[in-house]
Request: fold
Amino acid sequence: MSPSATLPETTSELTNAGVKHTVSKTAPSLASNGQVSTLAELDASRLIFTPNASPKTVPELNSPEVLSMACCTDHMITCTWTSTQGWHSPQLRPYGPLSLMPTASVLHYATECFEGLKVYRGHDLKLRLFRPERNAKRMLGSATRIALPAFAPEEFQKLIMKLVSVDGEKWLPKSRPGSFLYLRPTMIATAAALGVQKPREAMLYIIACCFPPFDENPGNSLQLSAQSSGENGAPAPVTHGLRLLASKDDMVRAWPGGFGYAKVGANYGPSLIAQAEARARGYNQILWLFGEQCDITEAGASNFFVVWRTREGRLQLVTAPLGDKIVLDGVTRRSVLDLTAERLSRTWEDVEGLEIVERRYTMYEVEEALEEGRLVEAFTSGTAFFISPVSELHFRGKDFYIPLSEGISGKYALLIKTWLKNIMYGKETHPWGVVVEETGVNA
Reply:
């Protein structure tokens, strides 16, 4: 057999082969080929703790500090990786600046990835993470897609839990049940040398940030004028629910064969200029469409759902599929689908059951459903905005107003959101709610 016969023949095959090679070399415990590496794997048991000698004051809820989304807790996790040694000992150390050389790969070639999840202070006063194993696995997929080192997801999750166990006691006090912190694990390539090449050094870090509850009334995030009115006698724009501006043919956020499924900065930075312009025009987010048929993908950085009735009378929950790797496999998205399958596959109390559909669907189909009175509701799902109802869509010069049957939300979005919050905040005991033991800084 010729050497070329064993080599990948497409870019996709090259990428997949590269990911497998990265995993086998940097985290051989995950590989099934029995390969042994001399490089150290990520190991949370080697954690070194340096307490913060100058701890900060916890800000009040919804204070300017919290609204700035720049106030972080006293500590952070950092861990270095090098191509010669592998993963070094993780550190839990005082929160503060990172040191990077101007030639660091991340600053030039966008070699970075990140995650987003929350830690919740439950109404039973316990601390919980929500399905953190899914964030850990997705972080692994994002890291290897962007040529960063692999790791065992369970070790990554242990590091998250250690940060939460130390800072959670103070920053989510038991006097504030129903509050949360936003967690941002990030990995960046740090080697101090230019050159378009696979990173030789990297840093994993995890921070916890004070965040406002965007989901309480997402439409008010723009502070829309109460005096504004719709055209041609249409209803004035409402503040309950999101207003979405559908993208045009000349804008694409992600594409088949790309990396829309990964949480890498290159998915987000290029979209910010258009997003800012949309917000300046009174919209909360862009509804990203793809292709000549205007396939619906995501709303801003969130997954998008519609509930509609087919012409045959079936009630469906519809969202874009993952197979094209255009949309993110959101943890909240997956949880919406899982809970709906478990609890709404048939009528629940007085709520009609739903058929779950993951497929390509177009903005033209949504337009038809609206015009024919078949669209029941629409909502987005994500970590920051959680479950947010959509009240308005603008598409090709036309405004479409979406029902909010419960006044502030559609029935299904509100019900699913309530179920999820009950799990997150301990009102319902569920395996998705992972309790974190609090140790504080003196443990």
Notes: The radius of gyration is 23 Å. Confidence is low (pLDDT under 50) at residues 1-10, 223-238. DSSP finds nine helices and 19 strands in the chain. Residues 32 and 337 are 30 Å apart (CA to CA).
